[in-house]
User: Fold this.
Amino acid sequence: MIDLRILGWAGMDQTLRQTTSRFGPWLTGALYLMLATGLLMIIGEPVRELVTFSFWLKMFLVAVGTLVAAIFQRTLRKHNQQWEETLVRRRSIKGLAMLTFLIWACIIFLGRLIAYDHVWGSWSPATKA
Ligand code: HEM
Assistant:
């Protein structure tokens, strides 16, 4: 929703700050929840999870997505007026919003793909194990 607000596709009746205040806590809470449930699944079947290309690519993208979201929320708090008036209109910022939207979409697919890691062929350590 934050990405869609930056792209100008949703929530245009709210400021950027209002949008992040509304959805930011959901983002953080959901990440903690998925970290906890993910860790439980890893403890349950460590080899199935850790010997897959999809899992490690997903973890890398989760780290990138989280870092971008954290930096964004921090700079928005510090330079709120600049964000609302100019930065949100920049093409580079809209490009970054589109990129992070795609990153989160890939994370969803990669989560499901862990069970089908053979699709990566020789890139999957599971095919060699
Ligand atoms: C924060 C750290 C995370 C960890 C450690 C983690 C770990 C895992 C693990 C171990 C699985 C099980 C895969 C399997 O055995 O089939 C899984 C599945 C999945 N994850 Fe995550 N995950 C995390 C975050 C996320 C996030 C942020 C999303 C979505 C935005 C996500 C979406 C999914 C999906 C859609 C599945 C497939 C569930 C299914 O098979 O029905 N995960 N994750």
Q: What stands out?
A: The chain has a mean pLDDT of 96. The pocket of protoporphyrin IX containing FE is lined by residues 31, 34-35, 38-39, 41-42, 48-49, 62, 104, 107-108, 111-112, 114-115 (CB under 6 Å). The chain is about 75% helix and 0% strand.
